[in-house]
From TrEMBL:
This is HD-GYP domain-containing protein (C-di-GMP phosphodiesterase class II). One of its GO terms (molecular function) is hydrolase activity. Residues 123-242 form the HD/PDEase domain. The keyword Hydrolase applies. Keywords: Hydrolase. SMART domains: HDc (SM00471). The keyword Hydrolase applies. Gene3D superfamilies: Hypothetical protein af1432. It comes from Clostridium beijerinckii. Pfam families: HD (PF01966).
Length: 327
């Protein structure tokens, strides 16, 4: 199985992982042949990378959160958002249930990948999908920081509700409106509410709504901020891969993010997903087959030599590095 950019090189290959609509229907099933017509259709629904079956069995897809569970969570979160829009109130029980189920089932292995195989075909569900993805990454950072289960639950709730203010306003004041909505429910703690209010604050004070700086920004908000920005980058251009998004975050630097949170984030996001074809500094083309824990830029890769499969562990071969992704 190989991860490929949708282009002419993917023609006539078989899809290895199904593509779903956000409402849960199969859009294109495993085994479907990729052709010129469905390449254009798939791109139109916001997907530019797919896994194809190339007969190589070294790669199996591990998702951070399996597609059926993602689809279920999106549906349940849509119900929460709809109720909030109607009643101007955030019910705590369904939100707790969604986040507890994430914590119970999330795959925090270094080999797990936040794979985009959900079609952008429903505007009402896009915010739910975005909120879920931000929550998944925030929870992974929580585990990286060795938070307690209770603290991870609170972080997850703050992350999944970070844009709840958009039920009231689409402007910058969605942060304040979201804060008001969650604060009206006594279940939600002050730190959780502050996370929602402050997730657009920047380390140098250039953010909003209060232009807070450094230590004045609560840690939950800093985590949600970088996860939100990363997901926004991926969503802004469907052809962007994780390593590109990390490069964009790096360019933002300490102006936007605290150094500690940035290190935790980039140490948790494995930027060359399994199945991706890369060019190495020694000139070889190889496929990423496995990640090395805590070494997100130095995976194990495989290449063919005289019809034999050979492997290079980039952790043990420090003079070799990934030069570029092969499209």
């Amino acid at each position: 199985m190989r991860l490929v950019i949708l282009n002419e090189k993917a023609m006539d290959k078989e899809l290895a992982v199904p593509i779903y609509t956000q409402s849960g229907m199969i859009y294109l099933n495993k085994g479907a042949k990729i052709n010129e017509r469905n390449i254009e259709q798939i791109k139109k629904i916001g997907i530019n990378t797919v896994y194809i079956d190339d007969g190589i069995n070294d790669v199996t897809l591990q998702e951070i959160y399996d597609a059926p569970l993602r689809l279920k969570a999106i549906k349940e979160l849509k119900n929460v958002f709809d109720e909030c829009k109607r009643k101007k109130y955030v019910p705590e029980q369904p939100v707790i249930k969604i986040v507890e189920e994430i914590i119970e089932n999330i795959n925090i292995s270094e080999n797990a990948y936040l794979y985009n195989n959900l079609a952008k075909n429903d505007k009402d569900l896009e915010l739910c999908t975005h909120s879920l993805n931000v929550a998944l990454l925030s929870i992974i950072i929580g585990y990286k920081k060795k938070y307690s289960q209770d603290k991870i639950l609170k972080l997850g709730i703050g992350a999944i509700l970070h844009d709840i203010g958009k039920m009231v306003s689409n402007g910058e004041d969605h942060t304040i409106e979201g804060y008001k909505l969650v604060k009206s429910n006594n279940y939600f703690s002050a730190t959780l509410c502050t996370c929602i209010r402050s997730h657009h604050e920047n380390e140098d004070g250039s953010g909003y709504p209060e232009k807070l700086k450094g230590d004045k920004i609560y840690e939950f908000a800093k985590i949600v901020s970088i996860c939100n920005e990363y997901i926004n980058i991926l969503e802004s251009d469907d052809s962007i891969l994780p390593h590109h998004a990390i490069e964009v975050l790096a360019a933002m630097g300490q102006q936007r993010f605290s150094n500690d949170i940035y290190k935790d984030f980039v140490g948790s996001i494995y930027c060359y997903p399994n199945g991706l074809t890369v060019k190495l500094s020694n000139g070889l083309e190889a496929m990423v087959i496995k990640q090395n824990i805590n070494m997100p830029t130095r995976p194990i890769v495989a290449f063919k030599e005289n019809d034999n499969i050979k492997y290079i562990d980039l952790v043990n071969n420090l003079t070799i590095f990934i030069e570029e992704v092969v499209y």
